[in-house]
Amino acid sequence: MPTQLFKLSELADIRSGYTFRGALEHDPSGDVRVLQIKDLRQNAAIEPDTLTVVTWDARTAPPLLQPGEITVIARGDTNKAVLYVGEQSVVATSQFFIVTAKRSTVLPAYLCWLINLPQSQRSLERSGSAIQAIGKASLMEMQIPLPPLASQQKLIALQAVWDEEDELIARLKTNREQMLQGIYQHLIKA
Fold it and tell me: Where is the Type I restriction modification DNA specificity domain (predicted)?
């Protein structure tokens, strides 16, 4: 049976992050952490302990990220998607789209993986001259192949192995550079 194609909007709900008024002031005694683009530029995961903390004083409850929701960077040349797996109170700014799977036949981790694929990234229509941005409609129209859950799990597991391999290679490279510097220093002093 061939894999069916769906629009992302058929598999998930998509909303914009929260628009904060004014500058965000870090408040160590605050109750809500705020996810901004700068928090994901270098990281592949949302690390709540590193986020700006604010006191939520709006009249409504904060639109907190729920475990299994995907944040997609809406501005910039890379629209990285990151799966939220934490339990802390985190609000994503309006610099993100939040994708929530609405069918049991799709794994959030699979959607996140697929959104990050180069061909998926290239399919997003960007606008703006100085700072590129994607529109919600472009994200909603993204074509998503939907294999069975078992295949989705295999793809996620394979990606995890590749990510671990990349991390090991980076650590080996760092170790090699440190070893070489030590050898060079030893030979210079000899």
Answer: 4-157
